[in-house]
Specification:
75% of the residues lie in helices and 0% in strands. It is an all-alpha fold. The chain has a domain of 194 residues: MetI-like (MetI-like fold, Orthogonal Bundle), CATH 1.10.3720.10. The relative contact order is 0.12.
């Protein structure tokens, strides 16, 4: 019989071997995540920009004083968060039935094809997607002509250069992320659970609330993370589609690095933005967990 000491020695060697195998990925994570984050925090305290020789004029707290002393950042941050939440909610409402149709309604042999159709927008550049949507939303375009046919709008007008246009473009860009995230969770739900719920008298709504929604929460949280964070910090879409009034907090941060050349203030804006988004994601996580406990689920 193998002794306890030999078992412990083998377990220790296995642990050491696993640690060595994980060292490259851990080092890569350190270089690509932790180090840039520390640099962001450090740069947020510098005064002005970094000189050509790599030196800085000094370190100061004025960057954060400038952020919290005015209403520019807070106003743009509130606007960006509201647009981000609106885009996320719209994506969730659209993505759930689409993901359910791919995961449970479509035949298994057609699921890969349908998933491929969802990610087709990823095969082209982001700018091309934005410009194509701008053509669709311009006066006499597809959207305005359709609204004119319904009598809801004048087809000679356009919804371009408005917050509505920004939301439409962002939903179009990030909807596939939400669909794929929910699809990965919905596909893993056992069909027997759904059939049992229906056979015991629960309707479609109760089955969704008590079974489908709790079991799809991991995918829902992943989708919210993949949509809310980049949408809130977007700056390309507001600049091209939103016009003069479409500026968001990402636009302000981008201008500090590319136009004003004030890296310290831009890094401080990015740091505060990161904290705000982290708090929002934590609150969303707590709300979803609370809703899950109230309906009898568990994470």
């Amino acid at each position: 019989m193998m002794s306890t000491r030999s078992i412990g020695t083998k377990s220790k060697k296995r642990f050491e071997t696993g640690g060595l195998l994980a060292a490259p990925s851990s080092l890569l994570f350190l270089c690509l995540s932790i180090v840039p984050l520390c640099m962001l925090v450090l740069f947020s305290f510098i005064s002005g920009n970094i000189n050509t020789d790599g030196s800085v004029e000094g370190y100061t707290l004025s960057n954060f004083e400038k952020i919290f002393s005015g209403f520019t950042f807070s106003g743009l941050m509130l606007k960006s968060v509201l647009i981000g939440l609106a885009v996320t909610v719209i994506c969730i409402i659209i993505a759930y039935p689409v993901a359910w149709g791919i995961a449970k309604v479509a035949k298994p042999k057609n699921r890969n094809l349908l998933a491929m159709l969802v990610i087709i927008p990823f095969f082209t550049s982001q700018l091309l997607l934005i410009y194509s949507m701008m053509v669709i939303m311009q006066s006499q375009g597809v959207i305005m002509s359709f609204l004119g046919f319904l009598g809801a709008a004048d087809p000679s007008t356009s919804i371009l250069y408005s917050n509505t246009a920004v939301i439409i473009v962002l939903v179009y860009e990030y909807l596939p992320y939400m669909i794929l995230s929910l699809y990965s969770s919905l596909e893993g739900i056992n069909d027997n659970l759904i059939h049992a719920s229906m056979s015991l008298g629960a309707g479609k709504f109760k089955t969704f609330i008590n079974i489908v929604f709790p079991m799809s929460i991991p995918g829902l949280l992943s989708g919210i993370l993949l949509v809310l964070v980049p949408v809130t910090g977007s700056f390309v879409e507001p600049a091209l589609v939103g016009g003069p009034n479409g500026m968001m907090v990402g636009s302000l941060i981008n201008s500090q690095f590319t136009t004003v050349l004030n890296m310290g203030y831009g890094a401080a804006l990015s740091f505060v933005f990161l904290i705000v988004i982290s708090v929002i994601m934590a609150v969303i996580r707590l709300l979803i967990n609370r809703a899950n406990r109230l309906i009898g689920g568990a994470i």
